[in-house]
Every structure is written in structure tokens, then in C-alpha cells.
Amino acid sequence: MEYRTLGKTNLKVSAIGFGAWAIGGNMWGPQNDNDSIAALNKSIDLGVNFIDTALAYGNGHSEKIIGKVLKTRKEKVYIATKIPPLMWPPSPNSHSTDAFPKEKIIESVETSLKNLNVDCIDLIQLHSWRENWTNDLEWYETLCKFKDQGKIKYIGVSVHDNMEDEALGVIET
Known about the structure:
Layout (H helix, E strand, L loop, with lengths): L2 E3 L6 E3 L3 E2 L13 H13 L4 E3 L8 H10 L7 E6 L12 H4 L2 H15 L4 E6 L11 H11 L3 E6 L10 H5 L1
Parallel strand pairs: 3-4, 4-5, 5-6, 6-7
Antiparallel strand pairs: 1-2
Helix pairs in contact: 1-2, 2-4, 4-5
């Protein structure tokens, strides 16, 4: 397996990651948890050490399956998860506090920590970033407190397919 540094972090992640949307089971139809566990274990056996998930994937079910697998593994596996916005998709004219009020961020991070059965999340992201949120800072300040507490290592954002330009402003900051 080839490994690369993830962005500006010091995390050396596998070039192939495990996308855990489908194992949540809601949007992709019913999934067999035993099959999901087997797929996660097989991917780790083959050198995958990066798993991407989100609290919204099966209303936390994806995270819970990952947490169950991580308890049985000795390898370091990096987890990226995402905080869902209050409205889907977030309006391009909304403010970040409309989609990610402080209380929602706090609740989501604490729930993800519990679901994943970890003390620290490697990468937490706001799901479905909008360009006009770049200068809103409450979300960032809230996540920095978690970082200071050692509950998250890195902060990021995700964007919808074919909307990469939405993140250009926040990348520059």
C-alpha cells in the first residue's frame, strides 16, 4: 500500500481509503453489519489506514460499526468524520450559524466520539461547506476548543460533488 501525507497534517494515510457511507445503511438500502465489519477488517488487513465517515451516515450507524472494528484492531487507523448541517443541503445564502450553530457542533462531536469509541477524532469536517461562510468564525472557535481539549486533531470542510470552488476561500485562510 502506498501512503501519503494528508493535506497539511502529519498523518500518513493510505492512498486508498475506506468510504463508509454505504455501511450506514440508510441511503444505500439495508446493509448486513457482519458484511460491513468483514469489509472494514479486510481493508485494514490490506493496509488501508484511512476511513471516511459522517455522523449522518445511517444516523451514526456507520460510526458505530467503525468503532466496533477499531476495538479489535492493533493498527493505527485514522478516522475522518463529518458534522451534518441542520438543513440539507445548506442554502448558498445561509450563514454558517444557520447550518452549524455552536450547540449542534458540540453535540455532534461528542456523539461521534461516543459512536467511534475513541478519545480523539483525527479529522473532523463540516459537511457541505458554503463559500460565503469563510469569514464566519464561531464554528472554527468551537472546534478549536475541542482541539485544545485533545478531542480532535485536525479541522476541515467537505463540499458537494462538482462544487470544489466553494472551499477556495476557506483554504486560503
